[in-house]
Amino acid sequence: MILKYEIKKILSKKGTLIALLVLLIITVCSILYTIHYPSWDIDDNTTIHGIKAIKMAKQEKSKNNAIITEDVVSSIINEYKVISNNSIDGTLSAEGWLKIQYIDDLVVLVDNSYGSFHDFNYYLCGQLSTSQSNQFYQNRIKQIKEWANSDENDALRYTEKEREYFIHSAETLETPFAYSYMDGWKEIFNGGALVLFCVMLVLCIIIAPVFCNEYQSGMDNILMSSQYGRSKVAYAKVFSSYIITTVVYWSSVLLYNLSVLLVYGTDGANCIIQTNRGFWKSFYHLTNIQALGVSLGLAYLGSLLMVSLTMFISSKAKTTFEAIIIPFVVLLIPPMINTRYMPKIVIDILNLLPNNTADSTSIFQEYNVYQIGEKVFSQCQMILIVYLICIIILLPIMLHSYRKHKIN
Amino acid sequence: MYLEIKKLEKVYKDKIAVKDFNIKLEAGIYGLLGANGAGKTTLMRILTGLIESTKGFVLYNGVDINKMGNQYCKNIGYLPQDFGYYPEFTVDDFLMYIAAVKGLDHTDARKRVNEVIDIFTLAEKKNKKIKTLSGGMKRRVGIAQAILNNPKILILDEPTTGLDPKERIKFRNFLSKFSDDKIVLLSTHIVSDVESIANKILIMKNGKLIDHGTFEELLERIEGCVWECNFNKKMADSFQMKYLVSNLKTVGEIATCRVVSKNKPTEEAFEIKANLEDLYTYYFNKDGEVE
Question: Which parts of the sequence belong to the ABC transporter domain (chain B) (predicted)?
Fold first, then answer.
């Protein structure tokens, strides 16, 4: 019964209702933007937008669904040359841009494969010959190996074990890749970060009063002099906070992701993320649907950590404002820090902060790893371990802090 | 059943809030009288287990309350001076929640909440949010939550604040019925409440228990020291500066004063029967002495 009323306490506040409403508005706006911004050029004078554009893209791009073999690579190179009118540098005319839409995803894959580790040239496809088509998969391994063994600054900051980790990942990635129309997955990874970030902020706002509001309102006088005021009430506060976190988080992310997939379709779910735009170099061996599961799981863990941190501060704070300010700083400040010239240890710590879990694109694109002893852990693995440890440590401290609270 | 306070002391950084407090409380109603800052709230918070004393003990039936933990809290009902509540909760929600926090299961809680709602005539307001209630109504909710667990020890800090005269009478009547086999300690500035309800009165000043006893016993201290005088109202200010005045009433040009003094203040003054306000004035003047 205490749990029921603790949940009611949180949900009955005006601040909670406003925060949830704002979250809903942001989620809906994100969905609408994701659905309405795509465009497709029918001809020089006609461009369609929104759902019509999505349907057209799906219809046309799906015609290219295939296992990427040497023959498929060859045909892409040939088709590009035809579209670019065999231009020497591969540049496209206005008419060429109209036609390239249909094979755009595959062109990008070829450009990724035959380009360098750091640079991307969209017109590279037009400079290739079909005799090179058998190098598509070896190129990737070669790129990563060369970079890992190079003297480039960003490679030198890794230990030998970490570089071996990247090379091993590249060498063991299963080929051939299956390509499918997968715009839905592309949009989810690109557009979901705002919703996830807002969920975390909103949860901090909602949960911040959970302990300190008792001190602020004077209810601590009654609670602390009651039989279960320091025991069951404390546990109920923690459970109610986690229950609300779980419901708010999963409702928001499922609303966003299911809405996007409903419109775009789930095609490409089982394609590996390396075939998804922007993830060519990723060392994770995951399909699109697996990557989504991992990123949502990490963001959920990030939310639980932020809520735990908020509750811990709330158990010590005198006012709700004090309880909100630190979680806000933890979430909002790190993304603004320019890490370009910072030592690796600082960057490694910043990469473990909860704001990162909202941005799955960064997690899967960037080469963030941690060597502990002889073992190398990916950023995902480290987040899982570190966050679970932090939550386990914070829980008893916050409960103790509340139980030992001194009445003013 | 008894609550024994032995050499109790509570020291804060720059103040001694409770000093050398000794008393044994048995079943009955105790009125705790004292000026602002006398230490009443601190004493009550120690008795409810909210804060720990610096020195001394509080024993409940011979056992130190600090060693009893939750078992002691089961016997406590407390209404703090500044009654906190959840504005968005209805009266019913609030009382059901507090009942659960006090250890009642759902069935018992439902039954008991219905009972206290009847006792304090809150039925019409039970589904209203507490923030919409008047100050007096909120106070009634505060008193109601304090008795939900039928406590053996009821501690009420300024319980009648905000209650109108009718509500105060109802409250006094309730307390008289409630306190049969219980210890009730209530602090108040309203001496008429103490006068009509309390079996015994505890006088607290500067953290110390300076006197205690029944109403009659305490009034004996100032027997023969209370006078009534009449004079021109222009002299009222100078009169108050010279004597301890417990009441001043002006009708037309004439001021009528109740004076607490060992000696007759004016030739025309005549002795009258002392009351609790006179006693309050006697104890809480500047020097603590009757002149």
Answer: 3-231
